[in-house]
Amino acid sequence: LKMSWFWFYLPLHLLMAACLCHSIKAPTTSSQQSFKTDLFNFHHSLILADGKETTVHLLKDIPKRYYFVMEEGRALAPFTVTVTPCDVPIEWSILVHKASASFLGKAARGDHDTQEVSKSQKAPSMVSTIFNYKGNSVETYMGMSSHSALYMLEFLSTERDTHITVYLTTDTTSGHLYPELPMDPRIDVIGIGHTTVTLTWKHSPSVLQHRENIQYCLLVNEKHNYKSLCAAETAIRSSGMKLPPTLALSLSPYLLEPQQVMILSNSESSIINKVSSGEVRQICMGTKNTYTVPNLSPSTQYYFDVFVVNLLTNASAAYTGTFARTLEEPEPKVVELKDGKVIQVVLDGKKQKFYSLQYQARHKKIQFTFQLCHGQVRVHIIKNGKTVASENISGLRYFSLKGKLLDTYLVQLRSTEESNSSVKVQVSSHFHKPLFPLLPESLKIKSFSKLRTCNSVTIAWLGTQEESKYCVYKKRIEDDQVWMELQSADRCSGPESRHKSEKALCKYFYDLNLQRAVTTETIKGLDAGTLYLFDVYLFGPSGIPVRYHSKVVKTRKKC
C-alpha cells in the first residue's frame, strides 16, 4: 500500500474545488452518515498533505474535515497522525471507509461517472471510527492500513475560534518531523533559591543523534504550564502583543517588538515578553539539559516548560511541565550606623521594600543627614518604637532630634519610584563638625537669555555666608540626550567623575548679607547653536561636594 496524491490527475476545475473545505453550519450528529455522503464528493474537500505540518483554522461549532487515501500496493502500510491544539481543547476523530480498490482508484483520479456513483451509494459501505479524542494535549495516532481505504479527519472546537496543527506521514523510516522525547519526559526541580530555580531533564534521543540541528528552549511564566509551543505563542499573542512567527526560533534582535527585551550571554538567548499579566520569559540554551533560571521574585510560584526544537523543520515536542515556588525573602538586615560615618544605600524600586538602619544615641542631641543621589526616597525615623519624622526627601535634608542617652533610632528608607534610587546617610552628635557644606536657599542655576552669544553663556547661582569653593563644569550634549542626562544625573557624585576637559572654572566667594550672596560667571569658548549641560559643585570644609541642579542652555545660532 502507498499514498495516492490524486490531485495530479484532476482536471483544473476539480483541482480548484479540492482547495475548498467541505463543512456544515451546525455540529454533525452522525459523522459516519456524513462520511458516506461526502465519500463521493471528497474531491471537493481538503486533502491532507503527506509529510508536512498543516495549520488548520477552526470556527466555533463548525466542523472541518480533511481526507487522505491509502491504496493497494503492499501488504501493510503504517501511518501516523499528530494533532497539536494551539489554544482551547478540541474534539477530533479519524474515520475510515473501506471500499474496493477499483472504486477508490477511480475516485482518486476523478474519472467515475454519475451512474457508478449512484450504484456505489446503494452498496453497503464499511465506515468506522478508529480514533477520537477531546482535550488540548498533543496526541499522535499510529495506524496500519491493510486495505484500500479513504480516511477522514474531523476537527471541532466548541469553545471559540482557534487553530491547530496537523501532521500526517506514511514514511516512518526517514526520521521524524518532531524531535523525540525520552522515555521519562518529566522536568526535575533540583534547586530552589530566593530568586533562582535550577531544573534538569533527560536528553532527547534527537539531541544525541542530531546535536547541531536540535536545541532546548525553556518557557517561564506565573500563570500555568503550556502543552505545546504554539499554545504558548497563542497565549502571548492574545495578551495584546505581536510575536515573531516562531517563538523558539525568533531570537534575532531585529524581529523583536517594543514589548520584548533580548538578552544574549554564553551562547544562551533569552526573550522577555512584557505583557499585561506579567512576564513570559523564553530561554534557548542549546543542548544543555540543566539550567538555573535567574532573576525571579521571592515567594512567587513559577511554571516551567521545556521544548525540544528541530531547527531545520521548526517542529517541537514538549516535556511534561513543572512548577516551583521560590523561597521567601529573608527579613531585611538591619545595618548599624556609626557616629559620623557616611554610607550610601541603593534601593530597589521594583521590590518597594524598606532598607533599615539602626543607631544608638551616645548624646542627647543628634542630627541625621540625607543626601539624595538619584531617584525619589521616602524616609521614616523611629525612636524607641515611635515615628518622629516621615517625609520624601530631595537634595540635602537635615533632621535634628533631641532625646535621651542610649535611645534607639531606626531609619527606614524606601524608593518611591519603580527604578532604583540611592541616598547617602550620616548621623552625628558633633554639630560643630558638619560633614556637608552650609547650603544656600536654592540649588538652582539661572541662565540669562539676553546675555547669550554664539560662543558664550552667562549663568548665576546662590552662595552662603561661609566662604566655600565652587567649580563649574560644562558638557556638550545633543537634543535627544537632554532628558536622559537630567534623569540619570547622580547628585552625590563629585567632579572626580567628570572629564578634565569639562572643567570650566573654580572660584571662592561668600557674603555675610545673604541678599547679596549671588555670583555670576560667563563661560566662553563655546560653539554656536549648541546645547550645553552646566553643573556647579559646592565644597565644604570636609571636602564633600554638593551638586547644584543641572542647567541646559543653548548658544545662539547667529550673532
From TrEMBL:
Record's signal peptide: 1-21
Listed Pfam families: NDNF, NDNF_C, NDNF_N
Keyword Thylakoid: no
Transmembrane residue ranges: none
Any one GO MF annotation of this record: heparin binding
Entry-linked SMART domains: FN3
Gene Ontology CC: one annotated term: extracellular region
Free-text function comment from the UniProt entry: Secretory protein that plays a role in various cellular processes. Acts as a chemorepellent acting on gonadotropin-releasing hormone (GnRH) expressing neurons regulating their migration to the hypothalamus. Also promotes neuron migration, growth and survival as well as neurite outgrowth and is involved in the development of the olfactory system. May also act through the regulation of growth factors activity and downstream signaling. Also regulates extracellular matrix assembly and cell adhesiveness.
Protein name: Protein NDNF
Organism of provenance: Circaetus pectoralis (black-chested snake-eagle)
Phylogenetic placement of the source organism: Eukaryota, Metazoa, Chordata, Craniata, Vertebrata
